[in-house]
Structures are given as C-alpha cells and as structure tokens.
Amino acid sequence: MGTHYNGTEEEIRALDLYIKLTRAADAVNGRINRHLTDENLTISQFGVLEALYHLGPLHQHELAEKILKSTGNMTLVIDNLVKRDLVERCRDEQDRRYVTVHLTANGRDLIARMFPAHVATVVAEMAALSVAEQEQLAALCRRLGLQEAAES
Question: Are residues 12 and 85 in the same domain?
Fold first, then answer.
C-alpha cells in the first residue's frame, strides 16, 4: 500500500518509494535477525558482539558509530552485555577516563557460533535478487545514504 497523501506527482512518488523502502528493510531485518531471540539478544547487542569480533576492542563511541546507535543507548546495550559476561569494559592505564569494550571468552564463543548462520541467512535473503540487482541496489542505497554528505 502506498501513500494516501494527495500531493504532487513528485511527492507521491517519493512517499511511495519511502514506504516501500522502509517496509522492505523492516521485513528483511526481521527475517534475518529472527534467530537473535533464541539467544536473548537485541539487534544492537548482536551488532556490538559482531563489531568486537571482527574489529577487536573498541571505545564505546566507536561502537556507537559502527552500529549506528546513540552513545546513550550504547551504555545500556553494553551494561546488559556485561551482566551476561559477554563483554567487559577495560580502563586505559595511562588515561583512566578512556574505556574500551572487549569480548569475554563467553562473548567470543557465542558470536563465533552464531555468525556463520547469520551470514547464511543474509545470503539467502539477498538471493531473491540477481547479482546485478544486488549490486544495483547496493549502489542506490549507498547513494541515498550519502545524500546529506553530498549536499554539504
């Protein structure tokens, strides 16, 4: 279902596209991340574990940037992962104000076990599009995502 807004052709086209883009992203996200409930993880928590697994220890602000969340929200996400012994905060010995987040052994084991199935699900979801369509959609999404930067 598209927009019910009675505007110009350009407005209706843009709103319809936005609705389709949002619904498609929500649907794909839901299907890809369905497995997280089995491990009692949120999408943000999984994102933190995945970032630390692939990039190594990161500062909380860096993690927030990597998974596109606010630093305030990141504090709660990390607190909950610490409670489950999946990550730990480590203070820098030279500058005690600087705290990095590290995976614990439990966190590393969990993400190492979960990530291959996650990748397989992403690949299966994207297989609805041909290789050329995947590349075209990736380019279009990048262009939309960088729109603000291009206008600055």
Answer: no
Q: How far apart are CA 118 and CA 114, in angstroms?
A: 6
Q: What is the rounded distance in angstroms from the CA atom of residue 139 to the CA atom of residue 90?
A: 38
19 is a domain residue:
yes
pTM of the prediction? 0.85
Residues 23 and 48 in one domain: no
Q: Which of 90, 94, 83 is nearest to 56 (CA)?
A: 90
Q: Per-residue pLDDT for the chain (152 aa), expressed as one digit of tens each?
A: 677 888 899 999 999 999 999 999 999 999 999 999 999 999 999 999 999 999 999 998 899 888 888 777 888 999 999 999 999 999 877 777 788 999 999 999 999 999 999 999 999 999 999 999 999 999 999 999 888 755 65
Residue 103 three-state SS: strand
Residue 140's domain spans which residues? 33-147
